[in-house]
Amino acid sequence: MTRNRIGFFVHAEAPGGIGCPPVMYQVTERTAPARRSRAARCPLFPAVWLGALTVCLALSTAPAAIDRHALVTRHNYEWNAPDSTVPLGNGEFCFTADGSGLQTFAGNTMAHWAWHSFPLPHGWTPYQVPATGTFQQGRNQGPDRFPPGTDELRRWMFDNPHIMNLARLRLCGGDGLALRKEDLSGLARSVDLWAGKQTSTYRMAGEVVRVETWVDASLDAVGVRIESPLVARKALQVALEFPYPSLGNGPWVGDFSRVAGHETELEFDPEQRALTERLSAEGQPGTYQGGVVPDLHRQAFRRSADDTTYHARLTWPSGPVGADGIEWVSTAAIFVRPAGPHRFLLAAPGKQRLEFLLAFSPRPITQPAPGVGDSASATARHRAAFWGAGGAIDLSGSKDPRWRELERRIVLSQYLMAAQSAGSFPSSEAGLMGIDPWRGQFHMEMVWWHLAHYALWDRWPMAEQALGCYQRFAPGAQKLAAQLGYRGLKWPKSVGPEGRSAPWEGNQVLLWKEPHPIFFAELEYRLRPGRATLDKWAEVVFGTAEHMADYPVRDEGTGVYSLSPAMPPSEQGVTRDTVFDLAYWRWGLDQAQVWRQRMGLPREPHWDEVRSRLAPLPVVDGVFVHSADWHDTFTRRAFEHPDPVGVLGMLPPIPGVDPEIAHRTTLKVWQTWDWDRCWGWDFPWLAMAAARQGEPRIAVDALLKESGRNRWDERGVNTGGPCPYLPGNGGLLYAVAMMAAGWDHGPDRTAPGFPDDGSWTVKWEGLKRAP
Q1: Where are the chain's structural domains?
Q2: DSSP letter string over 268-289?
Q3: How large is the average pLDDT for residues 237-262?
Q4: Topology annotation, domain 72-116+161-385
Q5: Which of 602, 605, 676 is nearest to 639 (CA)?
Q6: Are strands 86-89 and 93-97 parallel, antiparallel or unpaired?
Q7: Tell me, what's the pLDDT at 281?
């Protein structure tokens, strides 16, 4: 326990025992019992009894652990617009379902491994594509420029690779045509967050239709269960359709009308091929040529588009009794009928239910598929385990009427990030819901906003695979640095899985992406201190710091090192000595030296020299400003990202960053900023600064600020960008965890980032302090 001036806090295991998250609560301070003399001790009062008494006394004052099921399910929601989509995902794979339960009117099927590139423009070869993403040679002098005559290649490099839609599932009538919105009446669509499932009910042709949809927890597969008398009459079918990849972002990503340029091949395993041949020999209508694929309770597809290949597999219940105890009239549960080169109709005539799993993979799918019922049950258990582990924040005891909306955003953000931002690569700003203006590539400066929160919510394994991009990209980062005349690792900007930057003028001068891997390394070390973590990150940390020490330009007259050229996070142009970058550079170089000392290595003298002689943070009229050249931060430039608040908010206290100036700066940003011309993560960025600087009321108000760039739709997606904007969701999770659990050397009370005036009651458990 930790004693302080207002009481003491007790960490106790939740009623579930070992492994359950601890509860943080505040109890009234009591006078400690007087110590008993040696003479008073006797075998009748063993230490075990005293220990048990201590635990009982503590637990007698402890409130119950957070009822996580109640916390989560009070934010289940209904959204009855037919063409609105809800993400269902396992972190790597996401199926966005519309009101029909499938993707009849809108929705995409995407995965972090699913990428496509168009053929190169005529006359260009792969050998002419710069692997580093730039033709620039030598140290930065300004924005990155492409040479004359390379416009075609530049456009191609910006567009490729791009994320792709794997397929869509649409409900169709007996004629095989997709349903129209007017075919549905009385639509009621609910989302069960605890189970990770969507349920839609409505009427069609006078009959009730019920559709359940989920994404399997361990397989990149969507599960579907449709119940209706219309299924038995074959008046309700499902169309499986494969598109040619495209960059458009309408109701569906991809060109579903295009026949040429891609192939859909039916794949048969040996057992299936043997049955096909037998049915054909017996004259039964079971061959592909006869129009019906033999029903062996699975059907595989091989897809190819240009140089991209992937696989899909349908499976459905088999035998007289399904895995979930459903009795079947026969073993032929579903018939799959080709209805075009890239279109297949699924029907279950004579049955009230049509259910299946549709799985996707970059490689042939060989592992056995779970039963449909087993998949639904396992997914519900997995999702419940997710909610039961890691952090939780319950605001229901608060008097401030805004508590429910803030709690809704917190719960739904956890769900959304777990569904589509916990896979093999960092996600794009639109996650796996569609394709954004950057073609679904992820920005290395935005990786922090997608993944850092997992450390504070004690769900670090959900970030680890994606963060492996730093080790995977290290060889390319070294080549980029060397091509530009620098040492170390220079991290790219907007990338796909190969790590090549898409062309953009700010690629080489947008600096704040550079220290991020040191921050991530530190987050992991706080959770897993030890040699294994040190070794895992050593190459990345040291290579990053080496570049950070080599990038600044030394003034031979003064000896001062300047960050020049530099583009600040606000991206308002190219300048020098940008305020946030100067602070982040100080922290990153300091922390890299700490990393060396942890590994028993001496400090790097050059890192210390650069760190000690870095240009001071620019200050005008007692507040920080964007850069040494821009003194109009609070007039002409009071929009986009408020760079100055990050220096003591996202970042901890740093020598060389005056806390009083930082405090005045945060107050001025809050008063003067144009909050309708910023981005979704700017609100939690300000909240972090306000909380750390003793302004908890501003911290909460910032998170709930009324602004067109701080809107959260029915499914909890932050819309503060040119697309559904997940950095806003990830930023919120980091900020509220910090505001609840606190930060290093912060106020010694629970929930220090919330007002301590009785308006907010913050009950939390399982969270970690921020640096």
Answers
A1: 2-65, 72-116+161-385
A2: --HHHHHHHHHHHHTT-S-STT
A3: 96
A4: Beta-galactosidase; Chain A, domain 5 (2.70.98)
A5: 676
A6: antiparallel
A7: 52
